[in-house]
Amino acid sequence: MALQGVSIWGCSKSPPPPQFGVAVANSHSTLIGNLRYDFDKCRCCLGVLAQRATTAVEDEKPTVPPLAHSSGPAHQNEAKGFHFHKDMNLLPKPLTAIDLYSSPRDGKKVRVAYQGLPGAYSEDAAFKAYPKCETVPCDNFEAAFKAVELWLVDKAVLPIENSVGGSIHRNYDLLLRHRLHIVGEVQLRVNHCLLGLPGVRKEELKAVVSHPQAFAQCEKILSALGVVKISAHDTAASAQTVASNRPRDTGAIASSRAAKVYGLNILAERIQDDDENITRFLVLGREPIIPGADRPHKTSIVFSLEEGPGVLFKALAVFAMRDINLSKIESRPLKQRPLRVVDDLNEGNATYFDYLFYIDIEASMAEPRAQYAVGQLQEFARFLRVLGCYPMDTVL
């Protein structure tokens, strides 16, 4: 019997949903044609297109060669007469907007984009998702999304929420702006480490560099040390700063991988205030995966509703009545119409926020109960999109 499902895009009062995944037309031929025209016009390398047909990526068990980062041009950096070791010079640079339209790729490996520099927690998450992948650092979250869309990489791994810091709202907004699909998730236990130059003790530190969120998660040890906090773009960047400038009285809070990458010593491990500090990452791809029922799955959905009493309750009830658990709900203001007038006759023109609702349900779209639930939601939702159906990560 044919599997019934829901469309990736939907609106209210629509006819019965088509087969899952069919509603989105990934116009590969049009995309490739446009890219070829642009690349010919600019006389750039056509390696992205030449290898596209031979790139075979398996979402769960990639069989690819060992990791090998592509080397970039070496910098002639010096700090107080200290020359950087070769490994640091050969680290890949984060992608910029220019790179997104001109960088070639060989198509021989699973290439996974992440935000940050080598040694970032996002890179750890990429290796957990694809142990033998080739990681590609990106300058920001937007660049990682575009790198997948433009075939420069096969997947992107981006954080979506942290058990201490909460949701990463920027990536929720980007999920709606881009037409990528969630094909997996990674739960990573955060291990903040205090790093310093070789031979330095933590008691000698007078300043510490890191991301503001890392500072917030390590308040106890920072207060005990009485150090000055210096903000950085991300944790890996803080480790790079210490390794580059080599101040003996300055440390960094970053991952243990960052310590290896930048040649720093780990002065203290697991310095976060909360031991159960876990970040959840999403794995994004150009095409959805076929949902299964052989293992626990999640389905991520975003929708908006018409105004009215109890409408949100009615929306969530379609899952409760079918015994489907909601593991996550997030609301974001609808940017196209953030405010709605309640009563035009009121002198003050009373308004309130109009929202998009992002939910994660613990069910696969291969299950009839999930298909019927989303189909019923589609009947009264003004907008509905299935962001992806993917296996749950149950191993920390």
Automatic annotation (TrEMBL):
Primary residence: plastid
Describe the location of the Prephenate dehydratase domain by residue ranges: 111-286
Q: Which reaction(s) does the protein catalyse, per the Swiss-Prot or TrEMBL entry?
A: L-arogenate + H(+) = L-phenylalanine + CO2 + H2O; prephenate + H(+) = 3-phenylpyruvate + CO2 + H2O
Could you name the Gene Ontology cellular component terms for this entry?
chloroplast stroma
| UniProt keyword annotation of Amino-acid biosynthesis present | yes
Does the keyword field hold Lipid metabolism? no
Kindly report, in one word, the top-level EC class recorded for this enzyme: lyase
Q: Show the GO MF annotations.
A: arogenate dehydratase activity; prephenate dehydratase activity
Q: Domain ACT, which positions?
A: 300-391
| EC nos | 4.2.1.91
Q: Which SUPFAM superfamilies match?
A: ACT-like (SSF55021), Periplasmic binding protein-like II (SSF53850)
**Keyword annotations:** Amino-acid biosynthesis, Aromatic amino acid biosynthesis, Chloroplast, Lyase, Phenylalanine biosynthesis, Plastid, Transit peptide
Q: What GO biological process, any one, is recorded here?
A: L-phenylalanine biosynthetic process
The record's subcellular location field reads: Plastid, Chloroplast stroma
Q: Please give the pathway this protein is involved in.
A: Amino-acid biosynthesis; L-phenylalanine biosynthesis; L-phenylalanine from L-arogenate: step 1/1
Function of the protein: Converts the prephenate produced from the shikimate-chorismate pathway into phenylalanine.
- PANTHER family (alphabetical): AROGENATE DEHYDRATASE_PREPHENATE DEHYDRATASE 1, CHLOROPLASTIC, PREPHENATE DEHYDRATASE P PROTEIN
User: Any idea what this protein is called?
Assistant: Arogenate dehydratase
Organism lineage reads as:
Eukaryota, Viridiplantae, Streptophyta, Embryophyta, Tracheophyta
